[in-house]
Structure formats: C-alpha cells, structure tokens
Amino acid sequence: MTLLRLDNLTVRRGPCAVLSHVSLTVGAGECVGLIGPNGAGKTTLMRAALGLMPAEGTASLAGLTAAARAAQAAWLPQSPQIAWPVSVRHLVSLGAMARGRPADHPTVQRALDRMALGPFAGRTANGLSGGEQARVLIARALAQDTPLLMADEPTAGLDPAQQIRTMRVFRDLAAEGHSVVVSLHDLGLAARHCTRIIVLHAGGVAADGPPDAVLTDALMARVFGITAYRAETAAGAVFFPMDTVAP
Amino acid sequence: MSYRHLIAALTMLVVALFALSLVTGVARVGPGESLAALFRDDGGPLTMVMREIRLPRAILAVMIGVSLGLSGAAMQGFLRNPLAEPGLIGVSSSAALGAVLALQTGFAASFALALPVAALVGALVGVGAILFLAGPGGGAFTLILAGIALSALTGALTSLVLNLSPNPFAANEIVFWMMGSLADRSFDHVLMALPIMALGWLALARTGRGLEALTLGEDAAASMGVDLARLRLILLGGVAASVGAATAVAGAIGFVGLVVPHLLRPLVGGRPSRLLLASALGGAALVLAADIAVRMVLPGRDLKLGVLMALVGAPVFLNLIWRMRGQS
Known about the structure:
By secondary structure, chain A is α/β, with parallel strands linked by helices. Chain A has a domain at 2-74 and 147-244: 3-Layer(aba) Sandwich (Rossmann fold), CATH 3.40.50. Chain A has helices at residues 42-49, 66-72, 88-97, 106-114, 130-143, 160-175, 187-193, 211-214, 217-224, and strands at 2-13, 16-27, 31-35, 56-59, 73-76, 148-152, 179-183, 196-201, 204-209, 226-233, 236-244. In chain A, the strands form 3 sheets. In chain A, strands 5-6-7-3-8-9 form a 6-stranded mixed β-sheet, sandwiched between helices. Chain A has a 3-stranded antiparallel β-sheet with strand order 2-1-4, covered by helices on one side. Chain A has a two-stranded antiparallel sheet with strand order 10-11. In chain A, strand 1 and strand 2 form a beta hairpin. In chain A, 45% of the residues are buried. In chain B, helix 12 (256-264) crosses helix 13 (272-297). The radius of gyration of chain B is 20 Å and the shape is globular. Classes of the chains: A alpha/beta, B mainly alpha. Chain B: It is found in: Cell membrane. Chain B: This is Iron ABC transporter permease. Chain B: Belongs to the binding-protein-dependent transport system permease family. FecCD subfamily.
C-alpha cells in the first residue's frame, strides 16, 4: 500500500529550484533513509511532501485537510521547540490529542516506553538535556500513531545508545506495517537500519534502492565528495568518512 | 494544586473582591448596609449609588480583567513568548486614537456613549489593518512586526493630536482618558461592551487545542492538524473584540495581560489551554483589586487605574525578570 506519492515535485526559492521534478512513492513497511549533503533538499522534500510549504507538482498528503493529514502522517521537525514548561507525559500526549484521542490513550504510554522515557514522565520537558528533549519529541511523534512518520535528523544530538534505540524503533515500526522516512547524516546508521536509501543531490534523486546497492564508492565521491572506509560487521555495514575528494 | 482547585480558588477570589468592590466608595456606609441597599427596592440614595455607580463599576472591572487576562494568555500561547501582551497587535493604541480624535473634535460630547463608540471604531480600523498586513499568509513574526508598526503609527498620531490641540482642556481630558479608569461608568457602558467582549471570549475559548500544539512550534502544530491561518484569524478577532471593547470603555490599562498569565503559568503546569480560563479569572481578580485600591489609597484624588496598574505591575514584572535571570 502506498503511503506517500510525489509526482514531479518542484520547490523554488526565488529563481532557484531547491527541488526539481522529484517523483517517488513510499509504501507500507518501508524504513526509508533520506541522505544527501547539506542543502541537498532533504528538509524541503519532507516539508513539501507534507504540504507545509508551497510546491509545484503533486504530493499525496499536501491536498488533505490539516486534520486528515494529522491522521496519515506525523512530522518531527529538526530543531526541537518546547515553548512552555509542560510535563513530559503531557507533551507526548499531544501526539495522541492530534488524532482526537484522549491524553491517556495507550499509544502515549507505548511511545514513552519505546523511547525509555518512563522515569522522565513526570518531569518538566524543557528542563531536560537537549538529547533527552529530542527523545521526548520523538515519543510525541510516535504517540500520533500514524501510518507514516517523517523525521528530520532525529538522531542529531543523541548519544550512540539512543541513536541505535531510535533507529531500532523506526525499523520496528516499519516491520509493524507503518512506514518511516528519516533524514540522516550518519551513513552507517542509514545502512544498518533502513530498508531503503534515497540519496538527494542538487535538487534531485541521485540514487534510490537497498543500502548495499546505493552506498557505493562512486556515489560517495560523486555526491558527498568523500572517500569512505566501508566494512561489513555482524551488525551490518559500517562507514567511516576518510578524506575529501575533488568532485 | 490541581487545576480544579486553582479554578475554584480563583473564582472565590473574584467573588470576594467583587463584593469588596461593591462596598468600597466615598459614601461612608457600612458593608452590610451597602449590600442590603443593593437588593432593597426603595429607590433611596444608597440603592441608587449601589445600582447605578458601584455595581456597573465592579461588573466592568470583571469584564475588563477577563478580557485582558484571557487575551494575554492567548497572545503568549500563540506567539510562544512570555513577553507578549494584548497591546502588541496595536488594537488598544488604535482604540485610544479613536477616543482621542473624538475628544479633540468634540464628537465625544455629542451623545453619552460617543467616546467609547469612537474608540471601538478605532479598534476596528486597527484590527483591519493588522489582518491586512499579517493576514492568512503571515506567520507570528509578521504579526509582531505589523503590531509594532501599527502601535507606533497610532501612537504618533495620538501625539500629533495632542501636539496640535488648541484647547488645553481637551488635551487634559485626553491625557486623563489615556491613563485608564473605571470611575463614573454606567450600565450603558456594560451593555455596550459586553456583547462585543463576549464574542471575543468565545473566540478565544476555541483556541486552546491549537495553542497546545503550538507549544512544539508552527511546523509541528500544522502537522498535528492545526489550521494555523484559521487559528490566527480566530485569535486576532478574539483579542481585537475583547481588548478593543475594554479599551473603549476604560481607556488603556496595561500589564494585566502581561503579568497575569506569567504568574499563573507555573500553576497550570505550563499548559496554554488551561492558562486561558485561569488567566481570565486572574485578570478579573487583579483589575477588581486594583480598582478597589485606587479608591482606598487616595480616595479624594481620582487616582487612575492604569497608573496604579503600571506602578504595581512594573515592579512585579521586574522581580520576575530578576528571578528568570537567576535561573538562566
């Protein structure tokens, strides 16, 4: 089942096209890693896909009303914002309330448990550390319990254990039949945990497929301008950026 | 303290202050006798004082306090900024300009409610300008900038009117009106302001869910099913109606919308939706208390409500800033 369809999506900022004629579909059960250098258009792609910014072409979710969209897709923006000193539990429950569900809906406790936030539930969210706040916001998006979850660099600022935990949660969600689109800079995380990688470069899709097929030396040089050391381990592929190369 | 206890406590405070407001005044009569006169239908002078002077004054204090407290909480929630206040969108300064023009041109003397009507027209023009400048496409930032620009313009025009005023008495009247007061208001003022304010309160009461989602920023709120353009329209309309009507009948009264939500926020667990009702009641309590104080501190001198509010509000606010500084 297709949960997201983009047809010829083009986003302009002034005379420049940030994204140019991007078409793709995301189906149920996929954990899609969206990678690309800074400015490749990862955030723009996700925001335009959700109808949060004007775009040409079609995005399946953009035409929905705000309420209908909230039932289809949850969105986790990159910069954490928690304006008021609300409790962690209340903040996570906002995800359930976005669906018109009560604050004590089982999805709220499940999201708290998934992000190991049980001990923090009664604490004030904006009194936590940056990494802890990031986990609370991930839990908030999980509590929305939508078929599709889009997350913009959710692992930025998390310690290694929490990065792995977060990616496992996303992979588990995909295994349960949801789909996840997550932008990442850590290629190793993307390779180990995503079922599919979409590489954005210069406003278009440079590659799209299973991690092994996409993350080649040629792509590293062409898109990222780096050479990378790649090794297979029991836990999956590891990537170490080694040096920059001339494009 | 739970939310229900807080609301119950604030309600009791408002009721107690309302009763105290009714028994406060220049007439040297005991509280029991005053309250009895309110319900006695003998047409005596004390009954007249209670019904025609003190009762509308106390009711107006509640209405204006509710309007300012509720609008302040809504504005702070919408702009995600504890320093936001209802005056930020320029509605009160537009209302003041309308009133000042009415005083200057003599229109204010043409019929009993001419002054508040002119102020309301001013507020209406002001909110029209804001909606035009920061309408459906604009974000919170555009709204703040448009509000600042409108306040500056209306402030300058008000000063211009004062500057060119050939009549020192009119200038004097303008200055006193702008200080804000509830003295000598009648039921006509209550009846004129109440329907407009009530519409504003109803609109603001509907913003709770959107304000909760806005805790996480505009982008997240939009993805959580909040129609931001609609929310902005409801909120601006609500603030304009309630604050415009409040300024029209009582002049400019600052600090209520700023300080009350700030003081009550920790008691509602930071939740913007719960802060709405709490701040409405808190605002009513504060305006009632201040209006009692102006009559008790300098009984013979007509101390203006807006002046007292700023004199008390500013140090409270400075103290808050001092404590915030210590925390950060």
